[in-house]
## 1
Amino acid sequence: MELQKINSPKMIKQLTNKELEILAKDIRKFLIETCAVTGGHIGANLGVVELTLALHKHFDSPTDKLLFDVGHQAYIHKILTGRSDAFHSLRQYKGLCGFPKRNESEHDVWEAGHSSTSLSGAMGMAKARDIMGENYHVVPIIGDGAITGGMALEALNHIGHDQTNMTIILNDNEMSIAPNVGAMHNMFTRLRTNAHYNRFKNDVDGVLSQFPMMRKTADRMKDSVKYFVMDGIFFEELGLQYIGPIDGHSFEELEEAIELSKKTKGPSIIHVITKKGKGFKHAEDDMIGTWHGLGPYKIETGEVIKSESVGKSWGSIISDELLKYASEDRRIVAITPAMPVGSKLTKFQQELPDQFFDVGIAEQHAITMAAGLAAVGMKPFVAIYSTFLQRAYDQLLHDVDRMKLNVIVGIDRAGLVGADGETHQGVFDISIVAGLPNTVIMMPKDAFEAQDLMKTAIEYNEGPIAIRYPRGNSLTSVAQDYVPSRVEIGTWDYIVEDVNSDVTIITYSESMIHMAIEVSQLLKQDNISIDIVNARFIKPIDKTMMQTITRKTKNIVVIEEVIKHGGLGSIVANYIVDHRLSNVLDRIGIDDVYIEHGDVPKLLSDIGISSEQIAAQIKKMMND
Ligand SMILES: Cc1ncc(C[n+]2csc(CCOP(=O)(O)OP(=O)(O)O)c2C)c(N)n1
Ligand SMILES: CC(=O)[C@@H](O)[C@H](O)COP(=O)(O)O
Ligand SMILES: [Mg+2]
C-alpha cells in the first residue's frame, strides 16, 4: 500500500498481519529517508511502527481517542491519518508539527510536547464519556520514561481508584532520551526478564523432574510465587489489569492484548516491549540518546550533519565551567531531570558520578531536591530547559526562593528553540522567575561572560541565582587561558556608548546584542546614534545605569527574545513609571502568542525582531 494513498486509518483495517508487516517496512524506510533530511525524533518513532499500526487497526480513531504522551513518537500516526505527503515539511516553518496538533487533524485529539500528561488527559476524556453516557475507547500511549513523571503517577492514582474504563499502552523500550533511570525502570526490567520468577521456575522444574507426582502442587506454588515476584503487582495493586509484557513488534501479540483489554472492565495497562530505533542500526545501537531526536543525518554512515559554528555549545560552555568548580569542591553537585545529553552533562557524570544526579522526568523533584541540598550547605546546580522549568514553578518559589537557598538554576534552551515549536520555546521563564523576590537572573553576552557569570554564581551565597543560555552554539570560542572574573550582581555595561546618542537599546544575550549592533550600523546611515547596554542581569536591574540612561536619552528600546509581559521591558517600564520619568519606551519582544516551529531567524522576523524592522521602528519612534 502506497503511504501517500493512506488518507484514513480505515484503509488499514482490512490488512492481514502479513500485509501490515510489509507496510511497516515501507513506513520505516520512509521515516529514515525523510528524517535524514528534516531531522526529528527518528529513534522514538522507529520503535512504535507496529504498535501504531495495531492501534489504528484495532481501535477506531478519532471516535476512539489515542493520546500520545510527549507526542514525539506520533509520526506513524500522522502518516496513517493522511499526512505523509506533508512530511517533507516536518518541523519546518509553517510545516508539519513534530508533535500532535489539533488543528492539523481530527485524529490529533491530544497535543503534547511536555511529558507525562497523557494519563490525566485520558482521564478527563474518559470521565466526559461516562458523564455523557457515550461509548468509546480512551487509549493513552505512554513511554517507560514518561510514566515516571509525577503527573502520570497522580493520574494512575485517580484512574485506579475510580476504576475508569481505559486502555493504557505502556511503551517500554528501556530508554528515556538517555537510558531510563529510577526504581520504576528497574521494576520494568524485572518485568521484562522476570528474572526472579524464571529462576525460581527453573529450580522448581529441576527438582520436579525427580518427583513428577508433585507437578500439580508445584504449579500452584509457582503461580502464587509468580504473583509476589511479578512486578505487575504494582499496577494490579493500583487497580489496573496488567497485561503483558508483550512483544510490541508482533502484530499477533498486539492484537491479542488489545482485544483482551477491550473486554476488560475498568482500566487496563498493556506492557509493550519495543526497541527504540528498530530497523535502523545506528539508532538501534544508540545507548546514549543521540538518535532520540536530532537534525539531518547521513543514512549510510549515521553521521549527524552539524551546522558550522565557531564556538562550543552553550551547554558545554556552562557544564565545563561547572565541572571545573565541582572538581575542586564536593559541595557542588549537578542535577538534571532526564536531560544529561541535551544539557551536556555526560562528561560531568563520568568524572564526578557521586556529584551527579539524573532524577528522571521529575523537574519538581529536581528543584526541591536542590533546595534540600542547599539547606544543608551544598551548592546544587540544576540544569533545566526553560520550557521544562515551567513544571517546577512552585518548587522554585516555595522551596527555593522563599527560603533564599543557594541554588543555581541553569536555564538552558532560553529563547526560541526552533523546530520543537510552541511547547518548547524558552520564552516564559523570565516572566515566571522575575516575579520571585529573591532570585537573581543573568544571561551572558558571549562565552567569556558566561565564564564570568558562572564564577559569579558559584561564589554567590545570598540565595538563588539563575543563569540563562540558549540552544545551539556560541559565536565566540572560549580561550583556554581566559581567567574569569566575578561580576558585581545587578551591574550592566555599555557595549556601544556615544556622547550624543539619540536612543538607548537595552538588551541581553549574544544574539540580541549582535542584533542591536546591526541596528546601530543601519541607523548610522540616518545619522541616528545608538547606545547599546548589555543588561546581563535581568534581575536585579542596574539602578545606577538606569539613572544614567534615562537622563541621557529620552528614547529607550528594550529588545528581548521572550514574551514581553513580565520581561525586562516590563521591569524597565516599571522603573520609568515608579520614578515618574518622561522617557519614551518601546518594548520589542513576543506578544501574547505561542510561537510555532521553524528556523529561529524566520520566527524572529515574524515577531518584528530583525535589524531592519527594529531600525524602522526606532526611526518611527524618533519621528513621532
Ligand atoms: C516535562 C518534560 N521533561 C522532559 C522532556 C524531554 N523528553 C522528551 S522525550 C523524553 C523521554 C521520554 O521517554 P519515554 O517516555 O520512554 O519515550 P521514548 O522516547 O522512549 O519513546 C524526555 C525526557 C519533556 N518532553 N517533558
Ligand atoms: C521531545 C522532547 O522534549 C525532547 O526530545 C526535546 O525535543 C529535546 O530538545 P533538544 O533537541 O533541544 O535537546
Ligand atoms: Mg522509553
Note: Residues 195-230 form one domain.
## 2
Amino acid sequence: MKFQTDEQEKVYEKVYKELPAIIEKKCSGYDELYGYKLNYGDKDKELVTKYFDESIARALIFKLCKAYDFKYDDVKTHIIDILNWRKKFNPLDAAFKEKHNETLQTIGLVTHYPTAKPNKQVITWNLYGAISGKKEYFKDVDAFVRYRVGLMERGLRLLDFENDDNSYMAQVHDYKGVSMFKMDSDTKKCTRQVIAIFQEFYPELLSSKYFINVPSILVWVFDVIKTFVDSNTKKKFVLLGDGKKLGSHLPECPSKDYGGEDTKNTLQQQSVGTPRPTEYTLYLFEKENNDIE
Ligand code: HEM
C-alpha cells in the first residue's frame, strides 16, 4: 500500500477503524465485498476467526480510498452505497447460483493468464457482435443485467487483491458480426444500466477495456456511448478495428481471431468457466438456504 501523503494514510486508517460501525449502523450488518468479509468487529467472533482476512480487507479498503481520492466523506458514502447495493442485488447469486440465458452464457467468458503482464491476467470477454440486433436477449433488462454482473463477479474471483500485479482486470468487447447499427430501447437500457452499475459499484477494478472488430462506420457509436462514461474509465478504452491486433495487447489470447500467441486453444477452450466461490461466499449461501427453510 503506497500513500502519497500522510493525509491519505490518515483517511485510510480512519475509514478502516470505523468500518465495523459503518457496517452495523449504515449497511444493516452486510459486510461482504467481492466475496470477502469486511467486518472485523462482528459480534459473532467465530465468523471473524473463520472468514476475516485482514490483509485482503485492508487491500479492498485501500482500493476504495484510492477510487475516491482519499476524500473521507466520499469514501464513506460509497462504501455504504456499495454494500447496500450488494445486499439488495446479491451479485454473488448472479455469479455462482443463477442460471442465465444459455446464449448469453456463450458470449460472456472469463480467461485467466497467470503469467501475463501486470493486471492483464484476468480478462472478461463480451462477444456482443454475436447477438447484435437480436432484441430477445435484451428484452428482460433485469435478467441481462444480472447475467452481466454475474460475469463481472466471476472475473473478480480470479483477482488477487493483495497482489498489485493482479488486482485489476481487463475487458474485451468483440463486436464481430455487427453490421448496421440500430440499438433498440431495451438494448440501450441494458447498456446504460450496466455502465452505471460498473461505475458506481465496481470502482478501481478495470485496467483496460478493448473494443475490437468495430467497423469504421460505427466509430461514432463509440463516441456516443462514451458520453455516459466517466473520464477515468474512458482513459482505459482502446478501440481496435481489426480484432487480430488484440494479440499485441494481450499476447496470451488465442491466435485464431485475436492474433495472440496461443495457437492451440480457441477462446472457448481458454475459458475458465465458473471459479470456486470464496469460503465466505459459500458460508453466505448456506446461511441463505437455512434462512429460506
Ligand atoms: C452490437 C451492438 C452492441 C451491443 C449489444 C452492445 C452492448 C453493450 C453493453 C451491454 C455495454 C455495457 C457495458 C459492458 O457490458 O461491459 C456496452 C458498453 C459499451 N459499448 Fe457496446 N454494444 C454494441 C455496440 C457497440 C459499438 C458498435 C460500439 C463502438 C465501439 C460500442 C461501444 C461501447 C462502449 C464505449 C461502452 C462503454 C463501456 C464501459 O463503460 O465499460 N458498443 N455495450
Note: The chain has a mean pLDDT of 96.
